[in-house]
Request: fold
Amino acid sequence: MTDLYSEHHALALDAADPLPTLRDEFLLPRHGGAEQAYFCGNSLGLQPRGARAHVEEVLDKWAHEAVEGHFTGQAQWMPYHQLVREPLARLVGAQPSEVVAMNSLTANLHLMMVSFYRPTRERPAILIEAGAFPSDRHAVASQIGFHGFDPATDLIELEPDLPGGTYSMAAIEAAIAEHGQRLALVLWPGIQYRSGQAFDLRAIARLAQAQGAVCGFDLAHAVGNIELALHDSGVDFAVWCHYKYLNAGPGAVAGCFVHERHARSERPRFAGWWGHEAATRFRMGPQFVPTPGAEGWQLSNPPILGLAPLRASLDLFDRVGMPALRAKSLRLTGYLEALIRGRLSETLQIATPDDPAQRGCQLSLRVVGGRERGRALFDHLAANGVLGDWREPDVIRISPAPLYNTHADVLRFAQTVERWATA
Reply:
């Protein structure tokens, strides 16, 4: 029988993989003189080697052209955000006019809620998942309060109904039906950050909209991880960050999607000069004329140095394509699951759904024995050059990113856990 735990087998899997690793396109941290086994792409993706050249291009242009860099030479700054528009659209399954790179994730979420959360006395409520990422919950609660409503009654937090803190589609459907007459907005994750569960965006959007609610998604853990079809899914809006699977660097410029049916929306918005249509922007008139599409929600001109690394990462995604990356992700995560179930089940319990269609790169692993034992294992992994991500009270998140992780990395994780557990 094939020994899943042999280095020969892991190396053979890598050698035979239909998508050879792009590991050489990235800079990997080192530990003790060797490359780290890095599984934190769900928190901060690795630096693409091409990022430095794009950043230095901007610095050189600034040095030699100064303000003229907005209008002259290669990669002019005035339309610089458009350099990432079409690659982003391909990545998330949208039309180019439906996406824009701007601001940060939570700032974009607030801007979207200004336009798409329009509560009334009859419909003041927002539905989110219990245990949502704190930034999302803070934003939602503050918007409810800002409009004069009470988060204690108008923020509906759906508790998970399945093991591992996950949700059945039936539970989501029942909650939307139960609260439908009060719902102004359903805001749901593409992938839940703690459990790693992926959701059916199209189905949730249809359920929410059938009740008369708007539907938006936080795709921070989904973009660059799973295949998305935002236009066809019919979601009203979506927001995400680019520093996780998109490898654009710490605090990178975020992304936003607004469906084309809202392209010329007269919904209220917080307006800024850069959202004004380009053809008349420099007339400096007092009346705001929004650019049709997602770009009309821009405020200030984009940070060029912040956008530059994103170009390097999107080049890699365009080169490979999400279908091939997703297929490799399934192979890597499936191998990780097999190793855990084979010899590590007394140490680690998988909280993420078994169904590959309901998860991305990430497996959330609950350490048997509680927090103290979990922290001991996490510290042991880090001390041996295997870096995952800790979530209180007892979860280690391991995310094999298909752009740069390998089956050998996955085996190294399993072997390190096994040595600790049997010591």
